[in-house]
Amino acid sequence: MNYKIRRPNDDESSPNYPNNTQESWERNTLRDVLLEAYHEQKRARLWRNIWRGVGVLMFVSIMASAMKGSPENRQHQIATHKEHTAVINLTGVIGGNEDVNHVEILRDGLEEAFKNKHAKAIIIHANSPGGSPVVSNVAFQEVMRLKNMEKTKPVYVVIGDMCASGCYYIASAADKIYADPSSLVGSIGVIGSSFDATGLMDKLGVKRRQRIAGNNKGMGDPFSPETPEQVAIWQQMLNQIHAEFIKAVKLGRGNKLKEQQNPDLFSGRVYTGLESKNVGLIDEFGNVYSVARDVVKAPKLVDYTPEQNDLASLISRGLGAKMNTKLESWLNSVW
């Protein structure tokens, strides 16, 4: 559709009258551009409103889930009002994942279980190769603190496939330790390792240029030779950490350990469940089911392991710093 504004004195036959064809093309082009811009703006507004609506629905759904709980959470709530055995899972490399805080898992799970009068005992179900000595020591201290403070119900560790090194560090805080005869237990030692690539560099004709302030600042660099003094420093550090490990195990296990009959008890070796009972690293054989049924006399198992990565759990903990960060990022992407 073409639009023209004509004045009474305009004469289309006049040589001064604009070219109708060119004028019409320019007008149509301008109209098409404006219409397309209008439609594009309208579409953008529509999708923005749609996404806002979706965002609000998602937020409301998450809030409702956090407040009311999932079917599993509702079952958990029902189960906790009956006599049961509380279970807290200790899995993975201790301190090996920044998204999983093993200290918080144990502390929060233990606190919740101790508060529930229907939980007759607490089982820490351990299946870990170990990990950070610092995280292990903090977890050990927290288990000991809560156990000694509450004194209302026993804390047992039941070992699955493995509870070695840092995992056993934590396990030694329990009142009793149970394992399968084929479980791997112990490894009470400390390891620190690296590579010496100086021989390879010599063969390749490559020399290391390293500038340091302090004779031992580059200690541990695989491309620099290690001095006898640095070897002694490394060994001293490992010995000190090992001594702390041994002290914690002795504090937790006490006279159950048969150290005199087994001089290699703290050598870092791993024992089977059969061997570990003979040397005093565990008390009896058992699994979560047999311990709950035969020892605690409360066969119903209820998982008290706190969830650490789901959004609903973060909301239910009071919109902490981590929740605020996730929520801000999500809202920015929606809006």
UniProtKB/TrEMBL annotation:
<feature type="transmembrane region" description="Helical">
    <location>
        <begin position="50"/>
        <end position="67"/>
    </location>
</feature>
<keyword id="KW-1133">Transmembrane helix</keyword>
<dbReference type="InterPro" id="IPR029045">
    <property type="entry name" value="ClpP/crotonase-like_dom_sf"/>
</dbReference>
<keyword id="KW-0645">Protease</keyword>
<protein>
    <submittedName>
        <fullName>Signal peptide peptidase SppA, 36K type</fullName>
    </submittedName>
</protein>
<dbReference type="GO" id="GO:0006508">
    <property type="term" value="P:proteolysis"/>
</dbReference>
<keyword id="KW-0472">Membrane</keyword>
<feature type="compositionally biased region" description="Polar residues">
    <location>
        <begin position="14"/>
        <end position="23"/>
    </location>
</feature>
<keyword id="KW-0812">Transmembrane</keyword>
<keyword id="KW-0720">Serine protease</keyword>
<feature type="region of interest" description="Disordered">
    <location>
        <begin position="1"/>
        <end position="25"/>
    </location>
</feature>
<comment type="similarity">
    <text>Belongs to the peptidase S49 family.</text>
</comment>
<dbReference type="Pfam" id="PF01343">
    <property type="entry name" value="Peptidase_S49"/>
</dbReference>
<keyword id="KW-0378">Hydrolase</keyword>
<dbReference type="InterPro" id="IPR047272">
    <property type="entry name" value="S49_SppA_C"/>
</dbReference>
<dbReference type="GO" id="GO:0008236">
    <property type="term" value="F:serine-type peptidase activity"/>
</dbReference>
<feature type="domain" description="Peptidase S49">
    <location>
        <begin position="149"/>
        <end position="294"/>
    </location>
</feature>
<dbReference type="InterPro" id="IPR002142">
    <property type="entry name" value="Peptidase_S49"/>
</dbReference>
